[in-house]
Backbone:
């Protein structure tokens, strides 16, 4: 057969593309629910990691054990909706904090209320930019809404050994514990250049060699936690 | 024709040594710089590339007599991209932790020059079994260099291997410092250069007149 004919080339290319398209569409839709479930379980593990609960085997059970409710807040800090942990259905995915998309963090203000050893903790989602791509995380505050209980950070494509070290629990995340968040109504919790900590109450040492990723974490904390300013202040006035 | 004839063995072993894709053909350098700051991603990347090269070599070799000459590169690319996407989707569904670790690297596989190089140079003109062996050989040859470079970079750059500290604390107490430059991509290029230098010095066949 003459494989150099125009008609043959056209037909061949069309058939290949159609087969591949069907194949990919089939694989994608066949695996979608399973993938979504994995993403949800991973998110639960991340929330738990910010509460210093790690090495989780059954993410969903542990999540429901620690998390009391998932809430969406109004700008003035009042609770708009409060749902049971990982409860889908009635209100639909749009109404619950767990499924709140990253684009809506600043406007819907999701917060996870947890109970660790009888103590109330609040977990806030964070989303920002690192050097090469998105970074995200969760920060948990103690019941006073003022001091950090734990943090969890992750990233998409930061440099291994440098920016990617924001995932290093001992080196980068542990020092956040006990820091204060708000100062004069603004978020003062920040990451500064390694060795430049002036106010140890609010500042955490950055990673040397990863200035931009460290700054990204700092900006992310300030931007996203500021959205909760009213909520965080409400308690401290009481 | 036996499956493990001398020629087939040669097809498999040459890329591990004298015809290494990275140090001799100088392909896949970009990812060799990007993922070798630590051993773990280097090994994962090496294995992923091995699997994808072997499979795409096999598929293209099976199709090779039907592929129209003028669109062959596009067909190769479609096959590679489809394979990478399917593997990535499968990982997301069945091995989520691994897929999280691979994150960007899995996309990088599509653009790896070794794939197109092997498809065009070997799979288009050889049978499926030879092509499969060639793919495995080249993938492992690539992985070998990645692991060597990552070993040197992680050891000297952060004093760790697989994330575990191996340089004892008393070295640091006596003034030893990790070489931060090792974690930067330029150092990977220099190490690859040193490996090429060493290999050429020991291999008379590779030296130009």
Residues:
């Amino acid at each position: 057969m003459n494989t150099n004919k125009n008609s043959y080339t056209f037909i061949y290319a069309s058939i290949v593309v159609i087969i591949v398209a069907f194949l990919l569409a089939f694989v994608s839709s066949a695996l979608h629910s399973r993938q979504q479930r994995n993403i949800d379980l991973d998110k639960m593990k991340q929330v738990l990691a910010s509460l210093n609960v790690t090495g989780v085997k059954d993410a969903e059970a542990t999540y429901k054990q620690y998390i009391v409710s998932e809430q969406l807040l109004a700008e003035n800090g009042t609770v708009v909706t409060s749902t049971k942990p990982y409860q889908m259905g009635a209100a639909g995915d749009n109404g619950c904090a767990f499924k709140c998309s990253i684009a809506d963090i600043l406007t819907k203000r999701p917060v996870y209320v947890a109970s660790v050893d009888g103590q109330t903790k609040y977990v806030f989602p964070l989303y920002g930019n690192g050097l090469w791509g998105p970074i995200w995380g969760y920060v948990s505050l103690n019941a006073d809404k003022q001091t950090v209980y734990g943090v969890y950070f992750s990233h998409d494509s930061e440099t291994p050994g440098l920016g990617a070290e924001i995932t290093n629990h001992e080196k980068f995340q542990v020092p956040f514990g006990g820091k204060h968040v708000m100062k004069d109504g603004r978020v003062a919790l920040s990451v500064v250049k390694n060795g430049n900590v002036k106010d140890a109450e609010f500042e955490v040492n950055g990673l040397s060699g990863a200035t931009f990723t460290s700054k990204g974490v700092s900006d992310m904390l300030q931007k996203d936690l500021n959205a909760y300013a009213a909520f965080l202040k409400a308690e401290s006035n009481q | 024709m036996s499956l493990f004839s001398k020629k087939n063995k040669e097809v498999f072993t040459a890329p591990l040594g004298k015809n290494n894709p990275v140090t001799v053909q100088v392909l896949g350098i970009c990812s060799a710089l990007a993922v070798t700051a630590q051993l773990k991603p280097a090994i994962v990347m090496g294995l992923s590339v091995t699997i994808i090269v072997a499979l795409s070599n096999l598929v293209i070799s099976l199709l090779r007599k039907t592929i129209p000459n003028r669109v062959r590169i596009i067909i190769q690319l479609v096959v590679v991209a489809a394979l990478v996407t399917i593997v990535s989707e499968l990982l997301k569904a069945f091995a989520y932790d691994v897929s999280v670790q691979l994150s960007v690297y899995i996309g990088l596989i599509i653009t790896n020059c070794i794939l197109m190089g092997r498809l065009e140079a070997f799979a288009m003109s050889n049978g499926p079994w030879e092509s499969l062996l060639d793919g495995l050989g080249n993938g492992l040859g690539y992985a070998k260099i990645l692991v060597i470079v990552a070993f040197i970079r992680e050891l000297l750059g952060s004093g760790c291997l697989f994330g575990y500290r191996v340089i004892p604390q008393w070295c640091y107490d006596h003034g030893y410092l990790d070489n931060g430059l090792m974690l930067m991509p330029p150092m990977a290029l220099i190490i690859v250069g040193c490996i090429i230098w060493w290999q050429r010095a020991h291999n008379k066949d590779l030296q130009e007149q």
Summary: The first helix of chain B runs from residue 6 to 13.
